[in-house]
């Protein structure tokens, strides 16, 4: 339902006294993993991001030994190690690239290393709740940008995935960092739906700035429609099945998962954040 992007739709559902659920609002807890739409679709986006990077890059990803000499592997740097970032790491590694990754959540270091990538340590951590990082202070953002710029300057492909539903994507890559990248480098901004992680990003467009290609795709899972639909359907089935008792629709609105996803019910907008956005109160 995209509640954060479509307040008019939510208001209309509420006005017609419709009970609605937003799959995006399902709590990110162990019991709800099989229902987690954000994770299933993010996995597709991460996979496609690596493929897009390989397609747009003017270089091979793997090391090749040929009669014309040895070709060094490309370096791929991934910013944001959530589901999309992890899948991007795994896919870029399968394609033969040398991969480095960064996340403000230090707990992701082990996950990065388990996939054969190097974790970039900047000394800045921002552990948050619900699987997301907390917002950095202005000073921390400045430190992060300056430290990351040195690493990004060496990248052939940069994939950014830092996004939080309902909020603008954090600006991690300023124009000065892009200016420091090598000619022919590629940025795949998976956070384009929220405005992008790069200040130069134009959502839905591909531009070239000082020899650096900045690709900002929208609705990436739609590029893998068969498996995206299969995974989404399975998420829906796993979400709806507990609500069916002896073939009848009987949801337990006190259940943590059902209550968390409940958007409108009996003429009320149940999610506090969405209610404030729609009603301003």
UniProtKB/TrEMBL annotation:
One Pfam family in the UniProt entry: AlaDh_PNT_N
UniProt keyword terms in alphabetical order: NAD, NADP, Nucleotide-binding, Translocase
Matches recorded under InterPro entries: Ala_DH/PNT_CS2, AlaDH/PNT_N, AlaDH/PNT_NAD(H)-bd, NAD(P)-bd_dom_sf
Record-linked SMART domains: AlaDh_PNT_C
Keyword NAD: yes
Annotated GO CC locations: plasma membrane
Official protein name in the record: NAD(P) transhydrogenase subunit alpha part 1
SUPFAM superfamilies for the chain: NAD(P)-binding Rossmann-fold domains (SSF51735)
Reaction catalysed by this enzyme: NAD(+) + NADPH + H(+)(in) = NADH + NADP(+) + H(+)(out)
Annotated family: Belongs to the AlaDH/PNT family.
Domain Alanine dehydrogenase/pyridine nucleotide transhydrogenase NAD(H)-binding: 54-216
Primary role: The transhydrogenation between NADH and NADP is coupled to respiration and ATP hydrolysis and functions as a proton pump across the membrane.
Catalytic activity, EC: 7.1.1.1
Biological process per Gene Ontology, one example term: NADPH regeneration
GO terms assigned for molecular function: NADP binding; oxidoreductase activity; proton-translocating NAD(P)+ transhydrogenase activity
Species of the source: Thiothrix lacustris
